[in-house]
Amino acid sequence: MLFDDTYQTLAGLSEGFFKDKGSKFFAYAFPIANDSEAKSRLAQLRELHPKAVHHCYAYRLGADRMSYRMSDDGEPSGTAGRPILNVLYSKNITNVLVVVVRYFGGTLLGVPGLINAYKTATESALDAGEVVTRHYFSVYELSFGYMLMNDVMRIVKDMELPVRMQSFEMECRMEVEVRTTLIERFAARSQNVEGLIVKLID
């Protein structure tokens, strides 16, 4: 198979902590779906820790190594965001945001000390979390007359498509998730049902 549609991510929020020479590093790891979710999580943590000197972070989205963002938030370049991101790569998880909030303890840690602190805090947060396997998918809207109900439900059942929404009246509508590797098969089966309208919505 050329494309694998599974990926590893976190089941929910997990937290970690690291302390060095009085500086405290609070790490928060979140599963996220997109950039705007990452921004709102970051904003929440800035409100939660207004007195912290740095809110450094990294996140990656999707399967390739090109879709990521990171920030040293005032720390020396390459000492915070990059070590956080490298841990996400080494643990092979994606659609995850890690924010490490630092309270300065009065003693400078130097570049190797900072890299170690951000890396260790990130690892402790991820080690505390539950890693789950998810699938990339697209959401399709199905519109069809009531007479086609059995044909449509057979496709949904045979292909084990998660249903997001359904309303069955004279005109029926459903929203289903189709795994990326199944889209061609889904399209072929849908075309065999005359009168079924399929629309990609997400």
Q: Please write the string of helix (H) and strand (E) elements.
A: EEEHEEHEHEEHEEHE
Give the CA-based shape: elongated
Helix content: 25-40%
| CATH fold annotation of the largest domain | Ribosomal Protein S5, domain 2
For the record, the CATH architecture of the largest domain stands as 2-Layer Sandwich
* Overall average residue pLDDT: 95
Tell me the number of structural domains.
Answer: 2
Beta-strand percent range = 35-45%
Largest pleated sheet: 5 strands, antiparallel
Describe the strand arrangement of the main beta sheet, using strand numbers: 2-3-6-4-5
The helix-and-strand class reads alpha+beta
Radius of gyration: 22 Å
Structure summary, number of beta strands:
11
The count of helical stretches stands at: 5
CATH superfamily of the largest domain: Impact, N-terminal domain
Low-pLDDT parts are: none
User: What's the CATH class of the largest domain, please?
Assistant: Alpha Beta
- Tell me the span between the first and last alpha carbons: 24 Å
